[in-house]
Known about the structure:
By secondary structure, this protein is an alpha/beta fold. The chain is built from 13 helices and 14 strands. The protein has helices at about 15-30, 50-55, 65-80, 90-110, 125-135, 155-165, 240-250, 275-295, 295-315, 320-335, 365, 380-385, 390-405, and strands at about 5-10, 30-40, 60-65, 115, 140-145, 175-180, 185-190, 220-225, 230, 235, 255-265, 270-275, 340-345, 350-355. About 45% of the residues lie in helices and about 20% in strands. The strands form three sheets. A five-stranded parallel β-sheet has the order 3-2-1-4-5, sandwiched between helices. A five-stranded antiparallel β-sheet has the order 10-9-8-13-14. A four-stranded antiparallel β-sheet has the order 6-7-12-11, with no helix packed on it. It has three domains: about 5-175, Rossmann fold; about 185-295 and about 335-360, Argininosuccinate synthetase, chain A, domain 2 (Alpha-Beta Complex); about 365-405, no CATH class.
Amino acid sequence: MLKGEKVVLAYSGGLDTSVIIPWLKENYECEIIAACIDVGQGEEVKYIKDKALASGASKVYIEDVKEEFVKDYIFPTLKAGAVYEGKYLLGTSMARPLIAKKLVEIAHKEGAKAIAHGATGKGNDQVRFEVSIHALDPSIKIIAPWRIWDLKSREDEIDYAEKKGIPIPVTKEKIYSVDNNLWHISHEGGDLEDPWNEPKSDLYDIITPPDKAPDKPEYVVIEFEKGIPVKVNGKVLEPVKLIEELNVIAGRNGVGIADIVENRLVGMKSRGVYETPAGTLLHAAHKELEYLVLDKETMRFKDLVSQKYADLVYNGLWFSPLKAALDAFVEETQKNVTGVVRLKLYKGNVINAGVKSPYSLYNEEFVTFGKDEVYNQKDAEGFINLFGLSLKIKALMEMERKDMDEAVGR
Length: 410
């Protein structure tokens, strides 16, 4: 069906995509164009091209989109306060639509009729990739080998790779599925599939285990402009550098580990261990600033929006009309989210240590326990009478009914 045609493969150099190149050539007799979309995977990107060519790809794209990832995906999600099920800071979820966008662009450039990916038939990524691709170009065919090949496990993939002489980054002893980008590192599979198993201390790649973190607290100061972080400890940093700097600061203090049994979109629960050091600091600081500058009703409604926003991102609906509408609401709420937050970091804990803003709604004159000239405490009596009037009426009616019942001997 695709004999002689070009297929763009979302290529990471990991186990799945390393195996997919020879499998596609063997089963489709097509030309494979490997596309590595660099969202901050790190050193491994340096070896991607040679590895993909050695595996059978005819051409390799390496697209550095880290700045776009931060500005157009991480920061909007941060401003929305979107956290999935109270723990997951959406590192993989945010990256997938951007990767899909770049895959479509490469497919158009190369005249490819299909895009292939290594997501499994049990996971969320298949949805994120395919829904995003179809939102951008519904004519592109999708090839998802995990849904059609005879390989049933990562062990089978390892055997296949060894048979084909393909170098792979995992072994049967260390078989974790790892996704790495500028925002986070996720770990799944292996012994983590049993929620009773505590993560091994050598699991973490960028975070010092909290019990091994320094015995002395460290303070970090983050400055925001309209909901976007712009300075760390008084130093102006470009978006990518800012994330990298906070990753180091938080990581050495054991901050940013999330161990969650989450509800996948496809209907099952899965267990993931996430390292998101910079993200943990930024979400904490951003929320503290919103406490100071947002009015009560806006803040309460934004909490509802944040949850829905997280669901949309997690479920692969980044390019949906509702997501765009929620972005407009979020943007309006961020006009006054400007200020400085100081956080205290200690052995995995993040503690608010001070916040200030020129748009603060906190007024010391009104809340002071000392003498003030702006608040008449007598006004509270009328407010309380009106606020509790419905309860007072209810109690009066119940008393009347009770008196009537007693009068007639009921």
